[in-house]
Every structure is written in structure tokens, then in C-alpha cells.
User: Which sequence fits this backbone?
């Protein structure tokens, strides 16, 4: 059986949304179907601008009558303010639940996909499958870490690169990224049947009426470059390079300009469609 690895991700915060209107408030504004979020099951979703650009991404987890919102900590206050606008005159309130930490656990090398770890003795926890990709394992919400081998963020970044998983503030840039170009359909982060939400018209048009000209891809890298370094192909800007791990990287490319051989600063970059 594969060894489990994990760590406490203190770059994340957990918000708690309560009230009889909590689900309907979220359902009207986020990209995915909030009805699918239940005890032990998460929905990955985003909040967009009216122009369809990314603002926040998060996991929605049912917790009895409440909804837990697992989001990046340094933008949690902004997310609370934004969602608070939609809670006016509704029975819905938001607060940060500081009793819960986020633990990331994934299967290490060797063997089949193991069952998730049990909570630490004497500590209740919510364990959910990461809805984006089975390779990412589980997200655990509780006060104490589960019993796993120590994992490192660099190992988790390697998983993200291998499976084309963008991260807030790195590949996902507020007021800049379009979620379909970042792979949200592949990552189960958008529902095209749920009805209206903020930015829905632009997102639906990109899905049904256009062919994506940009996208998040994995490239091979010789050397290193700061995240956000511009990629050049035949002397023309072709995109940007982001998270790098073990000679591979996530890059946002313009497909009409991307070449097999590119440069990012002093690094050499190879792209194979």
C-alpha cells in the first residue's frame, strides 16, 4: 500500500457561512453547483468579475447546516467582504473558523491508492477527496494533523505541475486569468448547467462559441526563471512560466505563438503539444 504524506497548509484559511440563505447566496454567484457540497464532499469553485475574470477560488464543504469555504489565507478578508455584499438582507453570515486548520494528504510512491487517514485520536475532523484530481489525495479540516509521513510543499508542487493544477496567486491571477484557460472544466470547477452566476455569460461564450487560444500547459525547462517570467518564441512574447519542479513547469501559453523551443530569461523551455 502506498505511504501517505502530508503537511499542514497554513497558507489556507477556513471560512464558515451560516444561515438559511447561505447555499442560495453562494449558488447565485459561484461557478459550480453548491448543491453538490455535502458532509464529506467538496465542490471546487471560483468567484469571477462580471467580465468573467478570476477573483478567488475555493473549496466548498458541507458541515451540517453550514458551508465551509477553504480559501487562500492572504485573500480571505477580501473574499469575506465580497461575499458579504451578497449577504445583505439575507439570512447568511460569514466568519473565519480559526478552530480549523487545513491539512493536505496524498499517496506517496508505491502501491495502489490507499484509503484516507483517520483523524488524530481524540480529534474530530472532516476528510474530503480533492475534487480537482484523485492524485492530489485529500483535504482534511481539523485541529490536529493526521498520522502521515512528513511531506513537503515542494513535493506537492511537483504533483501540481504533473497534473496541471493552478494555484491562487501563482498561475491564477486576480482580474487577469480566465478560468477556462486555466483548466477549470478539467478540474471540475465549473458547471455549465447550473444557471446564472457572476461572469457566467462570458464563461459560457468561451465554452460554446470560441476556441481557446491560450491555456495552461506543462513544459520542460532547462535552468530556472522567476515565476511570471515572459516566454519568448522566435523573438515574440508567447506566454509566461510559473511553478517549476524537477525540470518541468506550468506555463500559460498563447497557442498561436508557442514554439517547440522557447526561452524564459536564461532558461530554455521545450513545449510538446
Assistant:
Amino acid at each position: 500500500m502506498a505511504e501517505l504524506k502530508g503537511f499542514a497548509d497554513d497558507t489556507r484559511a477556513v471560512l464558515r457561512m451560516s444561515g438559511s440563505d447561505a447555499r442560495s447566496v453562494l449558488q447565485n454567484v459561484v461557478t459550480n453547483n453548491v448543491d453538490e457540497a455535502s458532509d464529506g464532499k467538496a465542490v471546487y469553485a471560483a468567484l469571477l468579475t462580471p467580465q468573467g475574470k478570476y477573483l478567488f477560488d475555493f473549496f466548498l464543504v458541507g458541515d451540517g447546516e453550514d458551508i465551509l469555504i477553504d480559501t487562500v489565507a492572504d485573500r480571505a478578508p477580501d473574499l469575506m467582504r465580497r461575499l458579504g455584499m451578497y449577504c445583505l438582507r439575507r439570512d447568511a453570515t460569514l466568519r473565519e473558523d480559526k478552530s480549523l486548520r487545513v491539512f493536505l494528504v496524498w499517496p506517496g510512491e508505491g502501491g495502489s491508492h490507499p484509503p484516507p487517514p483517520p483523524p488524530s485520536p481524540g480529534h474530530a475532523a472532516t476528510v474530503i477527496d480533492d475534487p480537482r484530481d484523485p492524485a492530489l489525495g485529500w483535504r482534511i479540516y481539523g485541529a490536529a494533523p493526521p498520522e502521515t509521513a512528513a511531506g513537503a510543499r515542494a513535493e506537492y508542487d511537483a504533483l501540481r505541475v504533473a497534473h496541471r493544477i493552478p494555484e491562487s496567486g501563482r498561475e491564477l491571477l486576480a482580474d487577469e486569468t480566465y478560468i477556462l484557460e486555466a483548466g477549470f472544466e478539467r478540474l471540475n470547477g465549473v458547471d455549465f448547467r447550473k444557471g446564472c452566476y457572476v461572469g457566467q455569460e462570458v464563461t459560457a461564450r468561451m465554452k460554446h462559441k470560441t476556441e481557446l487560444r491560450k491555456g495552461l500547459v506543462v513544459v520542460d525547462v532547462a535552468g530556472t526563471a522567476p515565476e511570471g517570467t515572459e516566454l519568448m518564441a522566435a523573438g515574440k512574447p508567447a506566454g509566461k512560466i510559473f511553478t517549476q519542479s524537477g525540470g518541468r513547469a506550468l506555463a500559460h501559453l498563447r497557442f498561436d505563438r508557442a514554439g517547440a523551443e522557447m526561452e524564459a530569461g536564461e532558461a530554455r523551455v521545450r513545449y510538446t503539444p
Remarks:
- The two ends are 34 Å apart (CA to CA).
- The longest helix spans residues 76-86.
